[in-house]
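Hello Y.,

Per our agreement to keep a running log of every chain we model this quarter, I'm adding this entry. I've kept the format consistent with earlier entries: sequence first, then predicted structure.
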Amino acid sequence: MSWGFTLGVFLNRNFEVEFIFDSQRTTLEASGTRTVEVDSLDVGNYHGALAYNFGSGDSSVRPYFFGGAGATSYSPLSFMGADGKAREIAGQTRLSPTFGGGVKVYRGRIGARAEVRMTPTYIKSDSTGWWCDPYWGCYATSKSQYAWQIQMTGGVTVRF
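Predicted structure for the entry above:
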């Protein structure tokens, strides 16, 4: 579960500039013979986006899609691994895109909003070794790790 808000300003009847904020409290668990809660991990998203709303400004149903960029922040977290070594996760803020779409349904000036949003965030790369080709030389190779957030949200919307 998460909470948040979106503030939008229409540039014309269809294009809207939005600021999107959401905060999610997540529990990191380790599983094996039994599930153990390792620690809590808070995730915050701060994004600016450009949205396109279909229909006219006074339509009662307005589907929309959006895309933008901003930052995803992770609270600091460390825990002891099975090998006895301390592991660090997060504690950083990363640039991240966001995109998605949804529908706004109004009755007068007040309505409801349902949305699906995806926010992929690059976390880090782990070195996997070297790769050499016969023409250009050798290169360090790595395996990138991403956090794939897919959120389904809903809430109240007010238009002025």
